[in-house]
Specification:
Structural class: alpha/beta
CATH architecture of the largest domain: 3-Layer(bba) Sandwich
CATH class of the largest domain: Alpha Beta
Number of strands: 23
CATH superfamily of the largest domain: FAD/NAD(P)-binding domain
Number of domains: 3
Radius of gyration: 24 Å
Largest sheet: 5 strands, mixed, barrel
Number of helices: 13
CATH topology of the largest domain: FAD/NAD(P)-binding domain
Shape: globular
Strand content: 25-35%
Bound molecules: nicotinamide-adenine-dinucleotide
Length: 474
């Protein structure tokens, strides 16, 4: 029986990063994966969606430039080819991760893992199709990083053909729906709406809450809603789906209630994007399950479960379901497990939504800061006053900074602009290092760049921002 310092279950961004970190600390490590290496992020999440989005970006840019000296007579789209490129990118990164396992001496088991005791795991190996063998492995520590799966809402008709989750939509070859109805206006719903609208689908969104992206700053969700509507996407909020049936001219009919009125709408495909839940099925043999926190595994501050020596990180525990959070938790869990000091501040989590323009936030928004009793000052700069936004024909957006009134310390930042996701790290560092808005504004930022808007938003707190355009036009 092979024996390790650490067995990791699941090779998503939580699991594979943790395994390599432990190997780099000199530990003997195995990782067990029942599906494709890379988990949801690489195979069915971040990487596929952002690869498709990179492609659709060219379509929106081409449209933007149509009245500005560049025109196309036959801009055409080959959806299968886009999916093929997405698959190639995913395969390349997957190979890269396998290479990292080899380079760092991490042993990969391809099969289904079940924890059978505090330090033993049974692996049902799937090395040859149709033939399964079992292997027992032991380890001083076990780290569970089994991720999450889409929630299937209890709506009649959820199992009908062409009612899909984001996993199935992204498999998508040969299936570009004429009209896609999206149930759930959260992060997945809005990113998919952005991609598939550019691919030529008619899009309609049904969201149960009174606004889409309800976890985000209100002004961001309002501006994104306006942008979606401007691009011809219908958005229904405060709406409850009653049932889905087969029929109509497109194949599917959805009945829903909006503002006390029962309505129907038709679609060729329906995307269910109403959240994800921890994936724990079959992980533990009967009789040894750890204490749960709802549907997720409960852990302490060291990421240890109620069973000593068994740890859990990422989407399988409660918290923000983000790839970068899982990776950071993986590193900290390994550091603590093997007696090192944590090297990452896990309290400050940037959130990004890949829309047009992009959304990126970190720390507190205005409502959160007020709810926590802070007296605040807000600096805001509209992107239509930013040269880089104007020269690149960018959309309406802003950089907003939330600061403590008496000290000037930065508490949070909300960015709605092109490249926001690439700029948010600077603001996370500023919050983490307790910088004030004056310190944030005290460095030279290159011109012309989107990030000049950070300087202007900082200056705006003392009413010193320089606005290129009259404010009422922005
Ligand atoms: P979500 O929680 O972000 O959004 C789900 C939405 O569905 C909510 O707005 C909710 O009110 C709505 N809803 C729930 N039941 C409904 C119903 N019956 N009818 C209509 N609306 C309903 O979940 P998601 O969008 O599925 O994403 C899952 C997770 O993956 C999230 O935690 C998200 O942060 C993460 N994710 C992150 C990124 C990113 O970082 N860019 C991208 C994709 C997914």
């Amino acid at each position: 029986m092979d024996s390790y310092d650490l067995i990791v279950i699941g090779s998503g961004p939580g699991g594979y990063v943790a395994a390599i970190k432990a190997a780099k600390l000199g530990k003997k490590v195995a990782i067990i994966e029942k599906g494709e290496i890379g988990g949801t992020c690489l195979n069915r999440g971040c990487i596929p969606t952002k690869t498709l989005m990179h492609s659709t970006h060219f379509i929106s840019e081409a449209k933007r430039m149509q009245n500005a000296g560049i025109s196309f007579t036959d801009l055409s789209l080959d959806y299968d080819k886009l999916i093929e490129r997405k698959d190639e990118v995913v395969a390349r990164i997957r190979k890269g991760i396998e290479g990292l396992f080899n380079a760092n001496g991490v042993k990969l088991y391809k099969g289904v893992a079940t924890v059978i005791s505090q330090n033993r795991v049974k692996v049902k190996l799937a090395s040859e199709p149709g033939i399964h063998s079992e292997e027992l492995v032991t380890a001083k520590n076990i780290l569970i990083a089994s991720g999450s799966v889409p929630v299937i809402p209890r709506i009649e008709g959820s199992a009908i053909k062409n009612v899909v989750t984001s996993d199935q939509l992204l498999e998508g070859k040969g299936r570009l729906y004429k009209k896609l109805l999206i149930i759930g206006g959260g992060v997945i719903g809005i990113e998919m709406a952005t991609i598939y609208k550019e691919l030529g689908c008619e899009i309609e969104i049904i969201e149960a809450m009174d606004r889409i992206l309800s976890g985000m700053d209100k002004e961001i969700s309002q501006t994104i809603t306006m942008g979606l509507k401007k691009r011809g996407i219908s958005v229904h909020t405060g709406a409850r789906v009653l049932k889905i049936t087969e029929g109509g001219s497109l194949g599917l009919v959805c009945e829903y209630i909006e503002k006390d009125n029962t309505k129907t709408t038709e679609a060729e495909g329906i995307l269910l994007s109403v959240g994800r839940r921890s994936h724990t099925e079959g992980l533990f043999e009967d009789g040894i399950a750890p204490v749960m926190d709802g549907a997720s595994i409960k852990v302490n501050a060291e990421f240890e479960t109620s069973i000593p020596g068994i740890y859990a990180i990422g989407d399988v525990i409660k918290g923000k379901q983000l790839a970068h959070v899982a990776s950071a938790q993986g590193i900290v869990a390994i550091e603590k497990m093997f007696g090192h000091k944590a090297s990452i501040d896990l309290d400050l989590i940037p959130s990004c939504i890949y829309t047009v323009p992009e959304v990126a936030t970190v720390g507190m928004d205005e409502a959160e800061a007020k709810a926590q009793g802070y007296d605040i000052k807000i600096g805001k700069y509209p992107m239509l006053g930013n040269s880089k936004t104007l020269l690149s024909m960018g959309e309406r957006g802003f950089v907003k900074l939330i600061c403590e009134a008496d000290t000037g310390r930065l508490l949070g930042a909300q960015l709605l602009c092109d490249r926001a996701t690439d700029m948010i790290g600077e603001l996370a560092l500023a919050i983490s290092k307790k910088l004030t808005y004056k310190e944030l504004g005290s460095i030279i930022r290159p011109h012309p760049t989107y990030e000049e808007a950070i300087t202007e938003a900082a200056d705006d707190i003392d009413n010193m921002a320089i606005h290129l355009m009259p404010r009422r036009t922005l």
